[in-house]
Design brief:
alpha+beta; hydrolase activity, acting on ester bonds; Rossmann fold; 25% helix; SGNH hydrolase-type esterase domain-containing protein; elongated; 5-stranded antiparallel sheet; 14 helices; 4 domains; 640 residues; SGNH_hydro
Length: 640
């Protein structure tokens, strides 16, 4: 049985405990005398002596600053110097003396992060970032090069400090700025170069993201890589994008919705081409005119523009609703591509688009960087209340489909020649002075486009003064071309059709902005093998492939599912055509509209959308129903 400790034993234990504490925690060179009277060197003293011995063996000399090292020119060649405490962090590291100058060494001591990366990569059993509990506060303070750490507590996920929406840092833990402790939640402005951020590092903290002294944040994506996720320099560009999105309509969600959006774009005509069969032609509707003779060619007779077909109803709707024309206005009769007469009709109106708020205009500086819009008030006889300011060497761009337009601009009072240029698809087509003895508004430059197709127009300010642009004035056209050719199937529209029967290649012009394919009804006869939609799908795939390659600027919509009453005896049904085309739309990235559900509902509700013995061609009520389905789908764009 152990006895009681004597007073001397307690005294000796106390002395030994103190010696042990000093051994573990004492500063370099601090005395540590044990009860035997010996000075026991502590760990820090032993560490420094070991490093000094290693440096001596490697001929490495340490310096507090780079300046102190550069002043030491008496070193043998070669020898190594190490800078450890220079105020400019990037100066710290190893240098080699070559006899005339100290040069940065290709071999550098391992940084905290590089050592940490080795630890992470060597951990075969864990994919998570290792904790940095071994870092001292001083190491966290200096970070790596010019970085400062931002830490998140492992257990609670609490940020020790972070940045708010105004780019201010807010301390939520122990944070020092240049040695001053920040109160929790108090905003500190974006750090500037020279500020030093210090977050105390304890057990469980993780260096998962870094903040630069300029306020940029980099997120750790792997053991050795960081990705920039925030930079205060991004704020102007982000604000410009927000402003642009707030001014612009939402992006259209389908081809028909893009059609409606284009109707509101002053810079672009609408050229809708409907490729189809006898239903698109208008058979079954009233007031169509002669239906023959028919040879399944583009020069077949066309129905009148006043027929009650769904194509004509759509033309009336788009023209009368999206242009300021009389409610009873009639379309201008035009000749469809390949037709002898008729087949196409259009409405038009002179419109003005003010560039200061036009959603289709893109403003950039001389380096091509998007910039926020700046405007200036105009005066009579300007066509817009405000003008868009194009900075020196800056430019505006927009997509345009037109024969031409009047570019409206302001002149500045200046005796020196000030010029701007107009280019179309990268080709210079016009240049104009915008200076005069007195300033003025309402000046017009007539711009004729080289070709009637969708083109990219750029107006560049070649002067070193701002260019005021009011906008554009032009005759906006909404055109619907009915290329419904009676008796045609999907095979009739193949791009490989022989000359004289090239319905697709010759019937869909390069100026087409929107294309609706209403084909497949005549494919159901089943004359081809196999008697299913395989033949139809193969043909339509060739048609779509050609359109995507050769009419890439146009939106394409597949229209299928006429709920005809002639299904008995057919190889397959209208709903099968719709299912097939829905799959094709996904494959080719085009739009699709299925008419079948709503048309079938109307039939089962007792609506008479077919007349008499004609179970194939809708009557006036049937054509009106098809139009309403199309209109309802297109106008979903305007729902909010």
């Amino acid at each position: 049985m152990a006895g009681f400790l004597t007073k001397q034993e307690l005294l000796n234990g106390s002395v030994d405990a103190g010696t042990l504490g000093e051994f573990a925690n004492g500063a370099v060179g601090a005395p540590n005398v044990n009860r035997a009277g010996s000075d026991v060197k502590n760990l820090q003293t032993l560490r420094v002596e070991a490093l000094d011995a290693a440096f001596a063996a490697a001929d490495i000399k340490t310096y507090l600053t780079k300046a102190a090292m550069q002043a030491d020119t008496g070193r043998p060649v070669p020898s190594t110097g190490r800078v450890t405490k220079d105020p400019i962090l990037s100066n710290n590291g190893d240098y080699v003396w070559n006899g005339s100058a100290w040069q940065w060494s290709e071999i550098q001591p391992a940084s905290t992060l590089s050592l940490q990366a080795v630890r992470v990569q060597s951990d075969d059993n864990s994919g998570r970032v290792q904790s940095l509990e071994s870092l001292t506060s001083e190491q966290a303070k200096i970070g790596v090069d010019e970085w400062a750490f931002a830490h998140i507590e492992e257990n609670t996920g609490k940020l020790l400090f972070g940045m708010d929406r105004n780019a201010n840092l807010r301390a939520t833990g122990s944070l020092k700025v240049d040695g001053a402790i920040q109160a929790d939640g108090i905003a500190m402005g974006t750090p500037t170069v020279g500020d030093c951020l210090e977050a105390n590092v304890g057990e469980g903290d993780r260096a998962i993201s870094l903040w630069t002294r300029a306020g940029a944040r980099w997120q750790m994506t792997s053991a050795t890589e960081f990705e920039k996720v925030y930079d205060p320099a991004w704020i102007p560009e982000l604000q410009r994008q927000v402003d642009e999105l707030s001014q612009a309509p939402s992006l259209a969600g389908s081809g028909l919705q893009q059609l409606v959006l284009r109707c509101s774009n002053v810079a672009q005509d609408v050229n809708l081409v409907v490729a189809g069969d006898s239903i698109a032609w208008g058979i079954g509707a009233s007031n169509t005119g002669p239906t023959g003779p028919r040879n399944q060619r583009l020069d077949d007779p066309r129905s009148t523009l006043t027929a009650k077909s769904w194509v004509n109803l759509l033309r009336y709707y788009l023209g009368r609703r999206y242009l300021a024309v009389p409610v009873d206005a009639e379309p201008l009769v035009e000749i469809a591509p390949g037709a002898i007469e008729g087949g196409s009709g259009s409405f038009s109106q002179v419109q003005i688009a003010a560039f200061s708020d036009a959603f289709f205009v893109d403003l950039r500086d001389g380096g091509g960087v998007p910039i926020p819009r700046q405007t200036v008030a105009t005066g009579a006889p300007a066509v817009a209340a405000t003008a868009l300011i194009v900075p020196p060497l800056g430019y505006v761009e927009f997509d345009c489909l037109a024969v031409g337009f009047d570019l409206m601009y302001g002149k500045v009072a200046d005796s020196t020649s000030r010029m701007f240029t107009v280019s179309v698809d990268g080709v210079l087509i016009a240049q104009q002075e915008f200076n005069d003895t007195v300033a003025s508004w309402g000046n017009a430059l007539a711009v004729a486009l080289p070709a009637y197709r969708l083109s990219r127009v750029r107006i560049s300010n070649a002067a070193n003064v701002a260019l005021p642009l009011e906008g554009m004035r032009r005759n906006k056209v909404i055109r619907v071309v009915n290329q419904g050719i009676s008796g045609t199937s999907s095979a009739s529209w193949l791009p490989s059709a022989p000359s004289g029967r090239r319905l697709l290649v010759d019937g869909v012009p390069v100026s087409a902005t929107d294309i609706v394919l209403a084909l497949g009804t005549n494919d159901r006869i089943g004359s081809a093998t196999p008697a299913n939609t395989t033949w139809h799908q193969n043909n339509m795939a060739q048609v779509l492939g050609w359109l995507v390659a050769n009419r890439s600027s146009a939106s394409v919509t597949l229209l299928a599912g006429y709920a005809t009453l002639d299904e008995e005896g057919m190889a397959y049904q209208q709903r099968d055509i719709a299912r097939c085309q829905q799959n094709l739309a996904r494959m080719f990235g085009v739009s699709f509209l299925n008419l079948y559900p709503q048309m079938r509902d109307a039939i089962e509700d007792g609506q008479q959308i077919f007349s008499g013995s004609d179970l194939l061609h809708p009557n006036d009520a049937g054509h009106a129903l098809v139009f309403r389905i199309i209109k309802q789908h297109a106008e979903l764009f305007n729902a909010r």
